[in-house]
Amino acid sequence: MKAQLKILTGTRAGYTEVFSKAYIGIGRHPASDLRFDPERDLDVSTRHAAIVAQRDRWYVRDLGSRNGTLVNGHRITRDTNLSDTDQIRRGDEGTIVEFRPPPPGTPDGVVARAAGAAPATPAPANKDSGRRRMSTTERIRIEVGRQTKTLRTVTVGLFVSVIVVAAVFFYQGSRQAREREREVAELQARTDSILQASERAMEMLEGRVEGLAAALGTSRRDVEDLQRQLAAAQHAGSAEEVDALTQRLGNANQALQYQQAAALVDYRAIVDRNQRAVAIIWVEFGPDEVFTATAFAVRSDGTMLTNRHVVVGAGGDRRPTRMAVRFADSRQNWRATLLGVSASADLALIKLDIRGGTPTVSLNSRSDTLRQGDPIALIGFPLSTDLPMSGEYARTSFWAGSVSKVLDDVIQVDGYGAQGASGSPIFDRNGEVVGILYGGQEGTGGRIVYATPAGAALELMESIGIRPE
C-alpha cells in the first residue's frame, strides 16, 4: 500500500513524492520523510505531522505542532482518515499537500514536478530524486559487486597459495629442496599481491573507518614480518621452520583478505539507514547510581532491545528506579519501562511511551547467512554522554570489522578497534541486525568483542507475546 503526496504550495510546490512505508514523517527536520525548507517554510514545525497506514487505510496525525494540522479546512485533534484528493494544510496559512493513492506500479521517490515550478533544494537523502530510489540492500549489492572485482582475483590467488602450503608438507628431504624453493617463491609473490590490494583498501578507508584502517595496518605489518622470517629461514636452509612459517603466512593472508573485503562495503549507506533507530539509554538504580549503554528500536511503537545486564545488573537481581532514552540526532528524552529479560541470553526488551512512532532496524535471524570473514558494522554510544554532541543532539559512533567466529549462541567480531557500547546493534553487509554486542575479550584493546545472535532477540519477543514488524 502506497501514498502519493503532491505539494501544492510552499517552496517545494509542484513536487510529488510516493512512499510505501507505513509511517511518513512530515516537517522541517532533516530526518523527515516529506521534508520542507527549514528556513522558508516556517509555518511547518520541525516534526509537524505524520501519515500512518493502519488496517489498509491511511490516516493523518498531528504531532503537537505549533500551528496545527487541517484536513480540507478542518483542524484535526486525532488521527483522521484520508481519502483521494484530500488536502492537508500546515496551519491556517501554511503549505498544502494533496493526498492520493498512486496508480499501481508507481515507484517510490519523486515521480513528477509540475511544469514551470521552480526547482527546490531537495533533502540530502533525496539527491537522486529524479530516479527510482534503490533500497539500501540494492545499493550495497551493486557497490560490493563493483569494488570486489579485483579482490576476487586476489582470492583465487589465495586459494592457490593454500594449496601450495599444503603441498609443502608432503615434500621433505634434500631431493625436494629445489621444488620447495619454487613453491615458497610463488607464495611470496602472491603475498605481495595481497599486500598491494590491502594498501589500496587502506587508502579507501582513510578518513572514513579509522578502526578498520588501523586493523588493516596491523595485519599488513604481521604479513610483512612473516615474509621476512620466511625468506630468512629459506636462506638458512631450515626446512622445518620454512614449513611452519609457510602455514602461518597462509593464515595471515586469509585474515588480511577478510579485512580487505570488509573495507569494500558501503558503510555510509548502512549508517544513514539505521542510525536514527539507535539511542542512548540511562538506567538509574538509586541516587548517584546511573549507568549508560545503547538500545535500538525493533518496532515503531517504541519497543527496543538492549542488554539484560544493563537493566537488571550483572547478577540479574537489580531493578531500575528510572530509565530514559534519547535517540540519535535528537535532544528529546523518553521515559522507558522494562518489558522483560531473556533467561538464556544477555538481552532485554524495553518500551517507550512515544507519540508518532520511531524508526526501526531489521533483524536477520537466519544464522546460515553469516560466515567467518563476513564484514560487519556497529552503531552505538560507547562513550555515552561523553560523545561529541551537536548542540544538544547526540551523535552515534560507528565501527567496522569482520566476523572471526560463529557459534550457536555467540558471534565473535574483530578488527574494529573500539570498546564499550553494550547493547549496540551489529549489522551485516545488507544493513540487517545479526547480533547485539554484550562484551569483549580482555587484553585485546577492544579488537575482539562478542555478540548475541539476532535469533535470540526474536525468541525473547515471542516469549513476551510481541511480534516483529
Describe the structure concisely for a colleague.
This protein is α+β, with helices and mostly antiparallel strands and 469 residues long. The chain is built from 8 helices and 26 strands.
Overall 3D shape: elongated
Termini gap: 15 Å
The total count of strands amounts to 26
Which strand order spans the largest sheet, edge to edge or round the barrel? 8-7-10-11-1-2-12
Uncertain runs are 114-137, 204-208, 386-391
Strand residue content: 25-35%
Name the structural class. Answer: alpha+beta
Give the C-alpha Rg.
27 Å
Task: Supply the key terms.
alpha+beta; seven-stranded antiparallel β-sheet; 26 strands; elongated; 469 residues
Protein model, in words:
Residues 114-137, 204-208 and 386-391 have low confidence and may be disordered. The radius of gyration is 27 Å and the shape is elongated. The chain is built from 8 helices and 26 strands. The protein has helices at residues 136-147, 149-168, 177-205, 210-236, 239-263, 267-274, 308-312, 454-464, and strands at 3-7, 15-19, 23-27, 34-35, 49-54, 57-62, 69-71, 74-75, 80-81, 87-90, 96-100, 109-113, 278-286, 289-297, 303-306, 322-327, 333-341, 348-352, 375-380, 389-390, 393-394, 397-406, 411-414, 425-427, 433-440, 448-453. Strands 8-7-10-11-1-2-12 form a 7-stranded antiparallel beta sheet, with no helix packed on it. A 6-stranded antiparallel barrel has the order 13-14-15-18-17-16. By secondary structure, the chain is of the alpha+beta class. α2 packs antiparallel against α5 (239-263) and α4 runs antiparallel to α5. The relative contact order is 0.09.
